[in-house]
Design a protein that fits this description.
Elements lengths: L27 E5 L14 E3 L2 H6 L11 H10 L8 E5 L11 H8 L7 E5 L6 H9 L4 E6 L13 E5 L18 H9 L24 H9 L3 E6 L2 E5 L9 H24 L7 H21 L6 E2 L5 E2 L2 E4 L8 H6 L6 E4 L17
Parallel strand pairs: 1-3, 1-4, 4-5, 5-6, 6-7
Antiparallel strand pairs: 2-3, 7-8, 9-10, 11-12
C-alpha cells in the first residue's frame, strides 16, 4: 500500500548547498626560474605538489651541485614542521626571443589558479623584488623575500611585502651564505602559514633547513627599526625575529585582515544566496548584522580580535561593535538602488606580546 499522506500533508524538501570559497590564506606560490635541464613534460602554468618527490618528478633538481633554485626552495618548504600540505610553483617561461618573461608576467598567469596566498621568489634577482612588491600591493596576496645584504632592497612603503635578511654575519659576501639561506623567506612563510589565521605571530618561530645569523647588535637594531626581519639564535634556539611588513605593520595583522574581509564577504553572499529576498526592513537588516557579528566572533575565537574586557574602573570595553542603518531612515533613492549602505564595525586587535619588560625589587 502506498503512502497516502500526500493527500493530507504535502512536503517538498530542497537541499541547500552552501557557497564554496576558493580563497586560501595558507599556501605558498614559489615563482622562479625554470629547471636548467628541460623537464620530460612541459610545466603547467602553476604546478601543485604535495611532497618533494613530486617536485623532482616535474623536473626540478632539489639537491646537489646542479640543484635548481625552485628545487632548493621546495626542499626548504617541505623541511618545516609541520610541512605544507601542498606547494604551488609557477616557472618563468621563455618567449620567442628566448628571453625569460618578467616575474610579474608569471604572476599574472598564476592568478588564474586559486588556492595560494604568499608569493615566494626563487632565483629571482634583488633588482626585480620592488616590481613584485608593487604588483602584490594591488592584490589580496602577500610577498615574502630574502635579501643578502645589510640594506633591504624594497622600499618601506608596502603593507603586503616582508623581507628577511639571510646573511650569517654583518659583512659576509652574498656568495658565502649557505645555499638554503636565500630561501629563508620560504622557511618562515611555510612555518607560519601552518598556523590558523589569527593564532600566530611571525616572531620567535623555529625553522628547519636554514642557518641562523650572528649579527652585531647594531645590525639587529638597524633591521628591526627598518621593519626588516631575520633569523637568529637566542638562548640556544634558532628563531625568526620581528615579523613586520615593510610599512611597519605586523605580518599576522595583514593576513588576519585579509581573512576577515573574505569571511564577511562569504557570509553575506551566502545569506543572499539562501534567502529569496532581503527587504529593507529592520528585522531583515538584522540578518546582515548577525552575519557581521558571527564573523567577528569567529575572529575572536581565532585570536585576531580581542574579547570583551573590563578596564581598571570596571567599565566594560567591548572587543567589537557593529552598526547597521535603521530601515525607517533610508531614503527612497537608497531603497531604489538596492544597495545597503551604512553597515560598519569597529574591532580591537588582540595583538601579540613580542617583548616582556619586567621591573622588580628584592628586599631584606
Amino acid at each position: 500500500m502506498g503512502n497516502n499522506l500526500d493527500d493530507i500533508v504535502s512536503v517538498d524538501i530542497d537541499i541547500s548547498m552552501p557557497a564554496t570559497d576558493s580563497s586560501s590564506f595558507d599556501n605558498i606560490l614559489i615563482v622562479g626560474l625554470p629547471p636548467v635541464v628541460a623537464p620530460p613534460k612541459p610545466l603547467p602554468d602553476v604546478g601543485v605538489y604535495s611532497d618533494l618527490k613530486e617536485v623532482a618528478d616535474a623536473g626540478y633538481v632539489a639537491v646537489g651541485e646542479n640543484a635548481d633554485p625552485v628545487g632548493i626552495a621546495a626542499r626548504v618548504a617541505f623541511s618545516q614542521n609541520p610541512r605544507p600540505a601542498k606547494l604551488f610553483v609557477a616557472a618563468m617561461r621563455e618567449g620567442e626571443d628566448e628571453m625569460l618573461e618578467s616575474p610579474v608576467d608569471t604572476l599574472n598567469r598564476a592568478l588564474d589558479t586559486d588556492g595560494w596566498y604568499v608569493v615566494c621568489p626563487a632565483g629571482i634577482g634583488e633588482e626585480d623584488l620592488e616590481q613584485i612588491a608593487q604588483w602584490t600591493e594591488a592584490q589580496a596576496k602577500m610577498f615574502a623575500y630574502t635579501f643578502l645584504g645589510a640594506e633591504d632592497p624594497v622600499s618601506a612603503t608596502y603593507f603586503r611585502s616582508h623581507g628577511w635578511c639571510g646573511l650569517i654575519r654583518d659583512n659576509d659576501p652574498p656568495d658565502d651564505v649557505p645555499e638554503e639561506n636565500p630561501y629563508l623567506h620560504v622557511a618562515v612563510t611555510a612555518r607560519c602559514l601552518s598556523f590558523p589565521v589569527g593564532s600566530e605571530s611571525w616572531h620567535l618561530k623555529q625553522l628547519a633547513a636554514v642557518h641562523p645569523s650572528f649579527f652585531s647588535g647594531a645590525l639587529k637594531k638597524k633591521l628591526m627599526e627598518g621593519h626588516s626581519n631575520f633569523f637568529a639564535q637566542y638562548a640556544g634556539r634558532n628563531v625568526s625575529v620581528n615579523g613586520q611588513v615593510r610599512a611597519g605593520e605586523w605580518i599576522d595583522v595583514i593576513r588576519g585582515r585579509d581573512w576577515l574581509r573574505n569571511e564577511m564577504q562569504l557570509r553575506l553572499f551566502s545569506l543572499q544566496l539562501e534567502l529569496p529576498k532581503i527587504p529593507y526592513l529592520n528585522g531583515k537588516i538584522a540578518l546582515v548584522e548577525n552575519e557581521m557579528i558571527a564573523a567577528l566572533k569567529t575572529a575572536q575565537l581565532r585570536g585576531l580580535v580581542a574579547g570583551d574586557e573590563h578596564d581598571a574602573d570596571g567599565k566594560l570595553v567591548e572587543g567589537f561593535t557593529v552598526s547597521v542603518p535603521n530601515a525607517a531612515e533610508l531614503t527612497a533613492t537608497q531603497r531604489q538602488s538596492r544597495i545597503l549602505e551604512g553597515c560598519s564595525f569597529s574591532a580591537r586587535l588582540a595583538g601579540a606580546i613580542h617583548v616582556v619588560k619586567l621591573r622588580g625589587a628584592l628586599k631584606h
